[in-house]
Amino acid sequence: MDTIASLFSFITTPVSWVIVQFHSVYGAIFGPDTGWAWGLSIVSLVILIRICLIPLFVKQIKATRAMQTLQPEMKKIQERYKNDKQRQSEEMMKLYKETGTNPLSSCLPILAQSPFFFALYHVLNSIASNDTIGVINENLLQSAQKAHIVGAPLAAKFTDSASKVEALGASLTDVRVVTAIMIVLMSASQFFTQRQLMTKNVDTTVKTPFMQQQKMLMYVFPVMFAVFGINFPVGVLVYWLTTNVWTMGQQMYVIHNNPTPGSKAQASYLDRLTKHITQHNKVGKRRDRAIVKAIVAKGRDRNEFERKFINGLSKAGLVAQADGTVIKSDSAATAQAEDGTPTTAGGAPKRQQPKRQSKSQRQHGGAGGAKAAGETDVPKTSLTKSGEPEDTKPAAAAKKGGAKPAGGTRSKAQSGQRKGPQRPKSPSKK
Question: Using CA atoms, how far apart are residues 38 and 236, in angstroms rounded to an integer?
């Protein structure tokens, strides 16, 4: 480990300088020789490094999702060229090049942290060996050796001998209890982070070897941390535990607000988004609009959770637009004008369909149905001449009352009726 750490000795001076700067701040509050001053300096170093690595973390998320999208194609290539490993590798590289993905992008945050991790290890190991390093002079070296975190010196290890621990002013029991608890917390945080990723933020619709590998790593990584952790100084354990907790919180934020399509986290997110949109009839945040826009752009390629989201909006009378906003649908936006005429969302009067007449009304020219404009019923009285022909009765009534004939031929004022002579009704067969 010392050989590996010495390879990163070029960065030990910047790391030691950052720790000293934070120590000068916390030392003025808690005292320069306390474990709080030196421990919080290491925690602040982790936070500063992780803030600088946020762009790489975003790139890691995009690379991981791109790899998940390519899993079906990768599986086809593996099955097609299972007997030709060279051709299989060539096709894989061709697929990566065409899609612009890089499998190593998901490891960028870990690779970027490794120089700082080994530099910090080298600094703490030098403190334990009573050697000055970087900007840490003799006075700072003596102060760091006196600093204890819950009874364990910063430079002490689980595997140190009793004499070495006593030289740092502590007991072997305290050191091993503290380091064991920190190793368990470090492994547990790593396991929970990986399990959270596998159970909530993985596309469950695609079963690929990649998922099996991730499940295996969920159990392998915590064991590796436990094995290597017994050789880490307490200060390095503080560093690694802090970065694990940061990763866990950062991942929880991403899963809650920007989940992987097809995952359980996406189902929960879209349920919350549906309730919010139906309650306020709009998409509030820019991030939500971007997700709605992406769902609309997929069209028929939507997964079951996205289709459920679109159907939920439709039931609420809303329609998602291509720009990520929502509007009321035409059926829900139908309103009533001032005169009672139904109108659509655009304000245009709704077209009225003519009432369908019955068969008897069509045959008798509407005599039994709705009357034409200006038509009045002429009641029969005893004064009507019985000898007068029936054809002349409507004509006489029209001259007196101005009504139009309602029998024989159909009225032109009635809508939906055929013009011209009507076909005579065929005699019924007995």
Answer: 12
Dihedral in degrees, nearest 10, Cα atoms 213, 219, 224, 225 = 120
pTM greater than 0.85 (yes/no): no
Q: Is 121 exposed, middle or buried (0-12, 13-18, 19+ CB in 10 A)?
A: buried
Q: Are 350 and 342 in contact (CB under 8 A)?
A: yes
**Residues pairing with 318 in the sheet:** 328
Cβ atoms of 155 and 235 closer than 8 Å: yes
Taking only the tens of pLDDT, the chain with its 430 residues reads: 455 555 666 788 888 999 999 999 999 999 988 889 999 999 999 899 889 888 888 777 777 777 766 767 777 887 888 888 888 888 888 887 887 777 666 666 777 777 887 888 888 878 877 788 888 888 898 888 888 888 899 888 898 888 888 888 889 999 999 999 999 999 999 888 888 877 787 765 555 555 666 677 778 888 888 888 888 889 889 988 998 999 889 888 888 888 888 888 888 999 999 999 999 888 888 888 888 988 898 888 788 898 999 999 999 899 999 888 999 876 544 433 333 344 444 444 445 555 667 767 667 654 444 444 444 444 444 444 444 444 444 444 444 444 444 444 444 444 445 555 555 555 555 4
